[in-house]
Each structure stands twice: as C-alpha cells, then as structure tokens.
Amino acid sequence: MGQPDVRAATIGGMSPQSHPQRPSIRQRALEALLEPDPARKAAQARALFEEASACQAPPTAACTAPHPSGGDAWSEPRLLEVVEALTLSEAQQAAMPGRPALPRLVPAKDVPSRSPFTQEGRAALLHAICHIEFNAINLALDAVWRFAGMPEAFYRDWLRVAAEEALHFSLLREHLRSLGHDYGDFDAHDGLWSMCEKTRHDIVARMALVPRTLEARGLDATPLIQDKLTRAGDLRAVEILDVILRDEVGHVAIGNRWFHHLCEARGLDAVTLYPQLVREFEAPRLRPPFNEAARKAAGFTDQEMAFLLGAD
User: Fold this and answer.
1) pTM
2) Of 18-22, 44-48, 131-135, which gets the smallest average pLDDT?
3) H or E, element range at 255
4) Other C-beta atoms within 10 Å of 28: how many?
C-alpha cells in the first residue's frame, strides 16, 4: 500500500470527504505548505494568490470551482475564513514543512563559503539564495494558515508574499539549471524554518523576528552579492536579484506593518518590545553594513535603525 497523503489529512477535525464546502484558502495554504515538490508548491502558492486577488469581494459564483469529484460546485463557497482555527493531524505535523529529500540540511557553520568567481562557486551561491526563497514560500504560507482571527488584509498580504517568493525561487532555479545544477545539489541550513517553529505560538514574535529580522537581512546582503556577481560576469543573476530586492522591500514592509498593528492593538511599545523578543527567542543580533535606504523604504523608523546601529 502507498503512504497516505498528509496534505489530505484532517483539517480542523474534518476530512475532505466529509466536508460539504470548498476548502478555504487558508486550508489550501496549509496543503501547499505540506507539498514536498518545489515546483508544485510554487505553482500552488501563485494560484492561491491569484484566486484571492480575483475574490476581493465576498465570494460569488465567479469565485467557485467545480468539486474534484466532477459534480456540482462546492456549496457555500468560502474564501479566507479568518476566524477558523486550523489544527494539524499527527501526520501533518510530522511532514511539516513539505520539502524534498534534498538539499541535505546541515548546521549553518558547516555550509561552506561560496565564491562567485568560478562556475561551481557561483552555482553554490545561487543555490543558497534559491534555498532561502524556497523557505520563504513556506514561511508565508505558514502565516496564512496558522494565525486565525486577523483582518483579511493580513492573509492577502502573506498570500502575495508566498506568490512572489515562488516566482523568485522559480527564476533562481531556472538560472541554476543553466549552470548545470539544480535545487538540492548543495548542502543548506534550516535557520529560517527554525525561527518559524520557535514563533509558532506567538504571532507578534513571528512578525518581529521572521520578516523584519531574518528576511530583512536580504535587503542588506543583496547589493553586496550583486556587486560580486557583476564582477563575475553573471548579469542574469544580477537581474534576478533586482527583482528579488524590489519585492523583498515590500515583504519586509508587510512584516513591519503587521508587527506595528499588533503592538498597537495590544498596547505594546514596538521599539522596546523588539529587543526583548530578540533575546527571548535567541534571534541573531544583526550587524552592519545595513542598506538604510531599503530598510527605511520598508518602514523601519529612525528609532529602530538606531537600535540596529547600536545607538540604543
């Protein structure tokens, strides 16, 4: 017998066979998160955002889809179901997050440095960025399914992020293949998903430490990497990183917006809370150089920049 499909396991205590309605986008975001095949995961993430974008109004006939059995459309179609708390089955928990058997995951200190001035070194460098983008798809999908009760704009924002990270991953993977390699050919580390796990019960910490700490580091690193790739003559990689940097400013801005929204709603001081969360969750204390223009475009305040620069 084949293994059960954990993506179709129980969601919120009901199996797909017993569910009379079309699964909400949040449920399908969980299914995409559990998808191990990178290409299918990327396609699902982009399709979810396209559907959410087409259904800005309450769901209508235009937002329905045929039932997979081939029968009538789902009854009472739903879009985001923001209040519903979704839970994982044991099988889903064990499969979290969905990812391929390779790359092999090793401690960050065991991932070798990558010089872009040989084709092999350039492939290894681009593979590392490709791995970051794959993880970023998972991080965005996790925010969509995991945290109930947020405004619909929260879920639309993170579906957008998932779709754009899927594009980044696909562009990098295509270029990596042009260099004679593919995703999975080099070792990688699991730092991004580890912080996702640490903050799984705390949405404020998640917004503070994943998009606006770990992912924001890409705003600082990307121009430096682009400079090396330009000197190495890989102008296609530089073009792809232009797309990524442009979109990542928006992604970090989304993290900033929801972190400040949550702090305001809960009567918390965002500036004093952030260093407390860094210590509590053992997040890395970031070091210069910082891309101050990009960070300010992403919504970092002067006080927040002062903390980063060590002026606190």
Assistant:
1) 0.87
2) 18-22
3) helix 235-265
4) 20
